[in-house]
Amino acid sequence: MSRARARTSHRPLPEAPAPSRKVLLVSYTFPPQYDVSARRTAKLCKYLPRAGWQPIVLTKDWTRDVAPEDARAYTVVPHPEALEAIPDVHVVRAPYRSHDNALRRLHRRLGGVYEHSSRDLSAINNGAHQAGGATRNGTGNGRFPRTLARRALSLFSPVFGDFPDAFRGWIAPAVRTGVDVVRQEGIDAICSVCPPSTAHVVASEIARRTGLPWVAQFDDLYSFHLERQRRAIWRPYADYMHRRWMGLATLAGAITPAMLRYVQSTYALDGDVVVVGFDPDDQPHAPAPARDRFRLAYTGSVYPGDQRPDILFEAIERLCANAASPPIEVVFAGTGCDVELRAMLTAFPNAERACVFVDRLSPPEALRLQRQADALLLLNCTNPSREEGTLSYPAKAFEYLNARRPILALPRDPGGWGDQLLEHTGTGITVDSAGDAAGALESWVAAWQTSGSVPYRGNGREIARYSQPRQAQALARLLDRALTRYEA
Asked: For the chain, percent helix, then strand, then coil, each to nearest 5?
């Protein structure tokens, strides 16, 4: 077991009462890695002590143990400065070993997909289809039996493969390390943050071995929902394992009311809504540069299969149709799919002139871009069902609340919760069509050309509800409730 103490901050936090209880915070990602999940856990570490809980973090070594599966799933961005804001937090880094066994290796040799990208997956599936077809025509040189063997192994791959996710190799060493930490540090409760789902599996097993109360925080459902939507033959096994793991949880947190309802109905777990939130201390100095175009900014990944950037492109096409030069500049920062978006833009030549793509920015640079913009763009997910509601919501929305810039969200959130968030905070509007988006942008551009700014009607009291100090208090209340049940 290795243990590291975060570095001392040069900007100490305000005085707060010393925490009287300790929580083992299980998070697969953590600084110096600084993706969304890592930032989320680091901010909990910053604010949980003010709510009476001292976190001890169980994570992996993101300087030496970065595995191929990490590089495929995460944008690995070192940001060691994030540790400076949490100087008194103990960080315990359990070793990581990629999951491997004979059946997994055989399945992979036969064409089972583990580490391939979506493009590779498409090629493999096409190749398997062609091989199978050739065999059925009698010219496949014995490859049809190979396909049958691969498919047979695929039916049972959750047992030996990457279930609940590709990071299950961390489970055994993390559990051993976590149990040792509980015994050595006098831990009072456990909290794990999903994604990935492996973090909940680790916490579940630590809770089983130690008997401590466990709060499962769902920042996304991942395997706990996706496996129930996929192959029917996997569903009984996935349901059994998920219920077995979650049966040891005391309470749960979730980032939307619909997600909490899902967790309650599926796993009979009580809990509360605890959103990702924003850090009110993140207020970079960002003087607006002189420019002759209205700026709309988007920061973070884009998922064209689950979002509708084409609605925006059509709206900008209409807005710029009769202009000698575009009156608007749309900045996309770190989309992860610039090539695909540029290809979409070829159908919208006027919009193409208005769109600018920049590489992924560091967190401070992204916040600065948000504040230098005149308005912000939010692309809602289109997959939440109206029956289940909004099961997830972009974390960047909360950064946007803190940026104090008007937000244009599109299309409407099918579950409705995201639309209500903007309405209640007064921070933006949601549109469903290109025509409505073009009308909103036209009015904003006109206001900017007249006064140099866009009217902003954010409700500070409502916005403050989504700050990370308030959300850490919500999680602390869950930990208090879990501990009370444990002690009763």
From this structure: 45, 15, 40
In a domain, 429, yes or no: yes
Q: Are 104 and 161 in contact (CB under 8 A)?
A: yes
Query: How far, in Å, CA of 466 to CA of 261, rounded?
Result: 20
Q: Please give the structure tokens belonging to residue 413.
A: 């959130």
Check whether residue 336 and residue 460 sit in a common domain.
yes
Kindly state whether residues 355 and 421 are assigned to the same domain.
Answer: yes
Q: Which domain holds residue 418?
A: 294-464
Residue-level length of the chain? 488
Tell the burial category of 264 from Cβ atoms under 10 Å away from its Cβ (0-12, 13-18, 19+).
middle
Q: Give CA separation, 99 vs 169, 178, 197, 325, in Å.
A: 4, 19, 15, 55
Residue 183 token pair: 């015994």
Instruction: Looking at the structure, tell me whether residues 359 and 444 fall in a common domain.
Output: yes
The amino acid present at 329, given as its one-letter code, is E
Q: Measured between alpha carbons, how far is residue 96 from residues 41, 55, 204, 219 in Å? A: 19, 21, 18, 23
Cα torsion angle, 157, 161, 166, 172, sign: positive
| Mean pLDDT of successive 10-residue stretches along the chain, which has 488 residues | 36 57 96 89 95 96 86 80 85 86 66 48 28 34 64 63 84 97 96 95 98 96 72 77 94 95 94 96 82 94 92 96 90 95 96 95 91 95 74 90 96 92 96 96 95 93 96 97 91
Nearest to 353 by CA among 377, 321, 307, 379: 321
Q: Are residues 25 and 169 in the same domain?
A: yes
* CA gap 372, 119 in Å, rounded: 36
Total count of domains within the chain: 3
CA 450-452-458 angle, 5° bins: 110
Inside any domain, residue 283: no
- Structural contact between residues 299 and 359, judged by C-beta atoms closer than 8 angstroms: no
pLDDT at 335: 93
Q: Same domain, yes or no, for 213 and 302?
A: no
Residues 339 and 358 both lie in one domain: yes
DSSP-derived secondary structure for 6-41 = PPPPSSPPPP-PPP-EEEEEE-S--TTB-SHHHHHH
pLDDT at res. 331: 97
Alpha-carbon distance 128 to 136, whole Å? 12
Owner of token pair 């103990």: 90
